[in-house]
Amino acid sequence: MRTPLTALAASLALLLAGCTGDGGGGGPVTLEFQSLAWQKESVDANRELVAEWNARHPDIRVKYVQGSWDSVHDQLLTAFEGGEAPDIIHDASDDLADFAYGGYLADLRPYLPERLRSGIPQRSWDAGTFGDGVYGVPFLQEPRVLIANATLLKKSGVRIPTPGHPWTWDEFREVTAELSGKGRYGVAWPLKEPVSATLNLSLSTGGRLFHRGADGKVTVRFGAADLVVPKTVHDQVDTDHSASGTTLGMGGSDTLPGFFAGKYAMVPLGFSYRQQIVQQAPKGFDWQVLPAPAGADGLAQGVSPQTLSVAEDSPHKKEAAQFIDFLLRPDNMVRLARGDWMLPTGTEALKDPALRTAKDDWAVGTALAAELRPAPAQTVRGYPEWKDKVATPALQEYYSGAIGADELRHRLVDDGNRVLARYQR
What we know:
By secondary structure, the protein is α+β, with helices and mostly antiparallel strands. Helix content is 42%, strand content 15%.
């Protein structure tokens, strides 16, 4: 029989256990959700959804933690190695390979409900799949589109492309030449970071660059289909003078002042840039969204969807997956997509009328969703080093006319394969 003192000690122990916040003593589970939302509308949508979850789930509390796209990879690596990673991790699929193969992320297959699994197309799931496991739930994506000065296009009389009848890459080059002259360029390519744009757009021409063999190893091959997009850009800048050489070193936002001033008739940008244009365009400026050019594989385009993952060290993987399922219900996915001016991956969310309006050309982007594929570099270990040390300088020199196509091929393939080989031994 317990003495009163023993009973009191046991009661205190239970009380303290219930205050730990880890669920071990019957208290609420606390999950950290690190979000990379940065635009006000997006941050607001994420915070509102966290608050709604907490109001409905007093036993599973979610703490919102603000992260940053600029430093997320290094920050997460430090957190993983220090055993301090957030439970729920917002990132992009092209940043997950090393974390997934390194054992830092949980394989989500045992935890994902059927509703979520069946509600996202397999092509999108492929972006979060590494080896035999699923390490990220893809939920937001954006095609690269052409943002055009509608007034200049109408005056020129050129055919306006649609998702059903896009320009070919040859037509695109002809149109940019026709739109150039009198201090204006037909297009401004913001290629400060040229690799992902080049590789993702090259899917339309049948280019892949990375090829995985039966042994699982990846090699770089650069054929005629891989050259179409870079040669188009090179020739627009160096031969036709229909593209500005100055913008090759710019980011997308850097080109907007010149675009608004009529210096460039078109700028290839991510679909989400529409928000900046709505906020910054001069009063009366008429713009429109056009699909990127199509090649032998139509409008196919590579994307790296935003993802939600769970840390392998999290003691609450099941609860974390429940929160992800809530966050990505169709109506909530629409709220997140509208907050970021991007497209949801979910098939039901894509049907929402709010994402099919003519206003701000949402309908153009939604019509392209079925053509989006995982970026070619998605599962390639060593890609970051190949990109930074080999591909970025090689493409920048090629686009500026400093090297030719043969040298570009040599550097991407020969130098590139030496880099990748170190990761595949």
